[in-house]
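Researcher: Let's try something more involved. This one mixes different molecule types, so please make sure each is placed in the same coordinate frame as the others.
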Amino acid sequence: MTEEKYKALNFIEQILEEDLESGKHQGRVHTRFPPEPNGYLHIGHTKAICVNFELAKKYGGKTNLRFDDTNPTTEDTEYVEAIKRDIEWLGFEWNDEPYFASDYFPQLYKFAVKLIEDGNAYVDPSSAEEIAALKGTPTEPGKNSPYRDRPIAENLQLFAEMKEGKHADGAMVLRAKVDMTSPNMHMRDPVIYRIKHAHHHRTGDTWCIYPMYDFAHGQSDSIEEITHSLCSLEFIHHRALYNWFIEKLGIFPSRQIEFARMNVSYMITSKRKLLKLVNDGFVTGWDDPRMPTVSGMRRKGYPASAIRTFCDKVGVAKRDNLIEVELLESCVREDLNAISTRVMVVTDPIKLTITNFDQGTILLPADNNPEDEAAGKREVPFSSEIFIERDDFMIDPPKKYFRLGPDRTVRLKNAFIITCTDYQTDADGNVTEIMATYYPDSKSGSDTSGVKAKGTLHWVDAKESLPIAIHEIGRLFTDPTPASHEDKEITEFFNDESLIINDNARAEPYLASVKYDEHLQFMRKGYYILDENADGLVFNKTVNLKDSWAKKK
RNA sequence: UGAUCCAUGGUGUAAUUGGCAACACAUCGGUUUUUGGUACCGACAUUCUAGGUUCGAGUCCUAGUGGAUCAACCA
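Model: All components are placed in one shared frame. Result:
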């Protein structure tokens, strides 16, 4: 009766299962996540991280974290630390210690020498412009460099001199001798080593020549005996070269498999553009809660589990995609609904006086989370003077308005049912205070009043409530694909309302004691979290609650 | 005027590999509710086009069409 449940496999899982079945690599699955330490991890990286780590986990394999640090002029240890922290926070454990492509520089150098010895590489003193000129175009074949057939001994000599620092930056490069007429541009004698007299964040000044991506990435995969090297679609044209080096060097045959990277609406994933937002002061840093970075999302209150679920739901395929950010937000809400502490916060307070309440201040029990009995209860102070939301009262409300207005009756969450008896306005007709009476026998949990209330309002006690600041975080951009307009800067689409600071909110006393990792639901408003970078009571909005009333209006 | 990859609802992925197009998000409508939240129910597709093979095609073949990618001493 073992009913075999058919579970849909994505195309990479199909490849993995075929390899497992055929006994390739003794049934071993070993992946890697290879970030370059020149920026912070963003939403796009989370997809690559989830795919690499979760696929390996699913098939009993391991995943290496390897820093692709072959360009000393853009990379920094600051980024290494931030990347490690973000991956751990996302909930993944890499195999062993983190690896670094720079640790393989000696080996990579030997690989290059072997290539030269076998007549598969040559030193070219042509300038970058000259090399580009002979490269041809995608539709026209390239032409051989005049230095292409330099004798092996000479190549060896020059390459050694490059390493010894006898030549200036850009004076010459080492090129693989592949095929200048290949329709694949990457096969037209790609540069594999360049001279850079630059300080490397790990190897210091040991080297003044550095391998290019194509001569570092695949070789690192082989050195680590990575079985499946999963990367994004734009590397598809590099695969031929990747395999060419494996063949010429006779090294471990890692297999590169490309999948479509994830694009999310209203977010950008260009590290250059993100850095520009930081440098030009559009945001306060890489971890600004508006940023699509892992650290930004963390500070905004997105749970790691929600991000993982999101990546899982997005799936893995080869076609270009634009995921609606609403799916991410839905995953966040789903998580937060289950775990967040419900609290009452009035974001735009207006005073309401209960004219017939004369018990001073009393404490009322409130559920911390109706979805989770075990979360328990806390007590909320209540007295004759409270604050409610300004937009929960209308002098002349429309038909379907369930809230307060003259002679209307509502329930105060966790407290009593009240009826509005009067209100005051200023010279401009703005409501300044509301008066109401309460039904003593309508107390939450022991309501015997028989009074019907259509709506329920949240509130805070006027005296006991705390002033807090709320940072309403919105979309960073006003356009779903700000980077898709070739003639426009992304900053033209910067959303001026991406951060709205509200210093006027009032919260129940409980908020004075919340921790940085406690997710909160401000009832009827949204999910919030204490800002990990602020000193006082500053709360960042994670995401709104769904609001069918806002839509109706 | 090259090469490579891709094409299923508004969005993203499925379809047990040739057998009733499914799931999620979004949208719209409804039920429940001391959060206009949650939960629950319902609605929402001639599988890019045209031919072909077949009892049968989203799936295979042919030709189109559309999109993406490739010419850094970046990764």
